[in-house]
Amino acid sequence: MWGAWGCDKGALTPFLCFSNPSGLLPAPGAVRCPRRRGQVQRQQPPPASKARSLTRILPPSRPRPRRSFPCLGACAHIGGGAPAPRGRARSCRRHRFPSPLALLPFPPLRPLPRRQPARQPARPHCLPAGPWRSGWVSPPPPDSPGRSPQAVAGARWMWLAAAAPSLARRLLFLGPPPPPLLLLLLSRSSRRRRRLHSLGLAAMPEKRPFERLPADVSPINYSLCLKPDLLDFTFEGKLEASAQVRQATNQIVMNCADIDIITASYVPEGDEEIHATGFNYQNEDEKVTLSFPSTLQPGTGTLKIDFVGELNDKMKGFYRSKYTTPSGEVRYAAVTQFEATDARRAFPCWDEPAIKATFDISLVVPKDRVALSNMNVIDRKPYPDDENVVEVKFARTPVMSTYLVAFVVGEYDFVETRSKDGVCVRVYTPVGKAEQGKFALEVAAKTLPFYKDYFNVPYPLPKIDLIAIADFAAGAMENWGLVTYRETALLIDPKNSCSSSRQWVALVVGHELAHQWFGNLVTMEWWTHLWLNEGFASWIEYLCVDHCFPEYDIWTQFVSADYTRAQELDALDNSHPIEVSVGHPSEVDEIFDAISYSKGASVIRMLHDYIGDKDFKKGMNMYLTKFQQKNAATEDLWESLENASGKPIAAVMNTWTKQMGFPLIYVEAEQVEDDRLLRLSQKKFCASGPYVGEDCPQWMVPITISTSEDSSHAKMKILMDKPEMNIVLKDVKPDQWVKLNLGTVGFYRTQYSSAMLESLLPGIRDLSLPPVDRLGLQNDLFSLARAGIISTVEVLKVMEAFVNEPNYTVWSDLSCNLGILSTLLSHTDFYEEIQEFVKDVFSPIGERLGWDPKPGEGHLDALLRGLVLGKLGKAGHKATLEEARRRFKDHVEGKQILSADLRSPVYLTVLKHGDGTTLDIMLKLHKQADMQEEKNRIERVLGATLSPELIQKVLTFALSEEVRPQDTVSVIGGVAGGSKHGRKAAWKFIKDNWEELYNRYQGGFLISRLIKLSVEGFAVDKMAGEVKAFFESHPAPSAERTIQQCCENILLNAAWLKRDAESIHQYLLQRKASPPTA
Ligand SMILES: [Zn+2]
């Protein structure tokens, strides 16, 4: 999945991102995240009718219970669940289950009339009133003969409580329940507790000890039929799972969350059906235990379950996604996001990656909707009794994990091709936008054969669909054969998409398609090994894009996007090892972070370089062949690569994946006759300065060394496996430079002796050092300065040596670092001086590039122009500002539409130096934009506005209906990154609106992202205390590590400011007094 970072890529941009301050970068890795998951929730006020109905039932002081199951909006039932769309009532569970009521010892309730929607979509889009009427859902279990009336009543209560808890709870008011029922009902109130927690009224439950599912019963094949109701946001399901009972038992434990089971039974092969007599939901563990009156003997049989669930609005499980038809009508699609542990919200299942099975999926859907699943359609037939509904059957899947299952029901157009190895590839887009799927289609059709050749294993399914989903929390998700994407990660409008969007789409498509082998065919044994999936896909996406688009120079961009970003995070005391042992599924979210994705990708890149491509490919093929359709752990990959290469892979890699951090290699040199003697030593690199503790961790570091004789090939390669080493480089002349880490591949930082550094600097000016080495050198120096190992003034002097720099990525990294420095100095009274410095550094390249593309220019020139103009405009460069205003005016008046690549820099510049009218125009452009890319582009620059009232307006806008829930984070983050005042205002806004924000993103990675973007720029000690104190009283368990990292960064910023502010100021003043001559 493109998770936390995936969304980051999308969510975080340029100038909002401290490390990517231009705001113009494609920011490939910048935005990845743990992703993944859709805990985004848009809060809507309950319909008035519901509020009334609740007060009728509950005493006023009782908090409103919150249930997952939708229902009861218009009825007098207790309930909460999903709010009904505006103007429409939801169905009542009562209408659904008339027959069970008749069985109960209570008089049935009188059904309330259903409220008519104010603007009801045409009924043909809706499913028939309910399968319970046509007998689609099984009736409740029959009574066993000879049971006492109390036992029968108790069993019926249990059945009702399980099948329809809301209704059962309603009936509680009519008569006392048997004690076991009371316990059962109480056990189902975890959501309510969460709600209380969010209100600060209850303590968050502590992390519970976790147990994996028992192995006594396991699935062989799931036959699953689902019937979503796109108006009432519910679904009904029938599961018939053929299962193997390994050990005699009278209960089956499965995963199940937010689902109500109506009936369950087990049919042993060749024997009589046994009905389950109890469903015990363990809500905290997201499990259900089905109890049977007799023992299930070892052997095979069929487990039958009928159930109902909610099409929720939280972007996880089986959820609803809102879209607007070309005619402007709002409708909903039903889509899925199961990774990591949300398949259990769509159907009861063994929801662990190692419990694989095959799937026969059918969907019962309105006949005018597209229905998709992992496999191709094998049958489509009218549904009995309703001519508006069809049943679509899909072919059986290969053996696979539950988190990769997917289905989509909605309205889409598509474009189609066949890859050269015969796989049918389709890209599904919103209706009327098929054209925008062509770019991704081309990338996918090129990518599939590339991976097939690389892994030497064919793509195992007959088709692959890529589909753009309107409401989507992560960047994308690699469901086998049906990959889902955010719209901005898949759709490219030939006229209105910018170059960085193309590049992003190519990377995300490359990432998800790599998972079809690495992740889907061979799956991690448990979430502990998730990093391998994500790190590998995040590395090979670059290999694939480099193959498809060599002109992107994508490997250089990798260093700026993933490698340096991972190093920034991993240098903190609050980092974590790549391999983290994961227990309870709630811990999975935490590890979808830059360490899993970007550090994972960086160490795999280092490993690939250490082994060599030929042996790496051989090892990959061994691994994929040996474990296909099975599960594997990190050690299994190391073993295959070790066998292929004969190198000590496990020993080397364990030092990188099992301990956090990375080394700083200090190097000094001495000329001994014709040879150069190098003395190397390693120590852990810390963001706070040299490592001081005892027992400094050690790494086995593959090191490459190059010289000016041949700057693009290694003169020597060694494996540094001890704290200190001496190396002799033969035949190196005294005037030649020597550099470590050719290509910036090794995951370490380098500190050169002054003499060695001095000899390297001319290589920057005359470009004799390769671009990726210039970038690495500058980035190492910058982080050494941040850590207080060298002076920041030294780095500023090195930055000035980049005057002749032509490379986009080198500029982009330099721009990030200057952005970080600008943010820091915004706490001083000489912020304007650093802006002068920025203008001086960027002016020459800005003049060379100009505003309009020249003949023969390519992708990277377009990216560079956007970056440089944005940087100059933001810093207030007069000529750039004037031209940006002129072009913006023409754009708004329709005289001359801005090219997509120039929009971000122009929007940013005019907003930063504009007034309320400019902001209003931007908001109008936002409203008018048809493409999500354009909306996101505008959202990310809004925070550049400077006046306090306008900042407030932007913050209010962030939470409005105009902004999709997953994009709110980038608007608020943009404000925090835009100015000193914005930072304070954003923090206050988060505190004031904490409850709403927390509810939206409950526990998801977006809340971590929001916190990081909003508070990391502070540079005063006391702010670290304030942030810490706030989150102590407003806990956000899934963001705990992020909060610690932010507090650490605030303290580091404060220390940096105290240490270097004065010398930086003096240097800038001196420079002003005697400007450097070009
Ligand atoms: Zn992924």
TrEMBL record:
Residues that hold Zn(2+) according to the record: 511, 515, 534
Which Pfam families does the record associate with it? ERAP1_C (PF11838), Peptidase_M1 (PF01433), Peptidase_M1_N (PF17900)
Gene Ontology CC: one annotated term: membrane
List, in alphabetical order, the Gene Ontology terms for molecular function in this entry.
Answer: alanyl aminopeptidase activity; metalloaminopeptidase activity; peptide binding; zinc ion binding
Annotated cofactor note: Binds 1 zinc ion per subunit.
Show where the ERAP1-like C-terminal domain sits. Answer: 737-1050
Under Enzyme Commission nomenclature, its number is 3.4.11.14
State the UniProt keywords alphabetically: Aminopeptidase, Cytoplasm, Hydrolase, Metal-binding, Metalloprotease, Nitration, Nucleus, Protease, Signal-anchor, Transmembrane, Zinc
The record's subcellular locations are: Cytoplasm, Cytosol; Membrane; Nucleus
In its keyword annotation, does this UniProt entry include RNA-binding? no
Q: Where would you find the membrane-spanning parts of this chain?
A: none
- Top-level enzyme category: hydrolase
> InterPro entries in the record, alphabetically?
Aminopeptidase_N-like_N (IPR045357), Aminopeptidase_N-like_N_sf (IPR042097), ERAP1-like_C_dom (IPR024571), M1_APN-typ (IPR034016), Peptidase_M1 (IPR001930), Peptidase_M1_aminopeptidases (IPR050344), Peptidase_M1_dom (IPR014782), Peptidase_M4/M1_CTD_sf (IPR027268)
Chain intervals for the UniProt region annotation (Disordered): 34-65
Q: Where is the active site?
A: 512 (proton acceptor)
- From what superkingdom does this record's organism come? Eukaryota
**Where would I find the Aminopeptidase N-like N-terminal domain in this sequence?**
219-404
Similarity-based family:
Belongs to the peptidase M1 family.
Subunit composition and interactions: Monomer.
Q: What is this protein called?
A: Puromycin-sensitive aminopeptidase
What organism does this protein naturally occur in? Bos indicus x Bos taurus
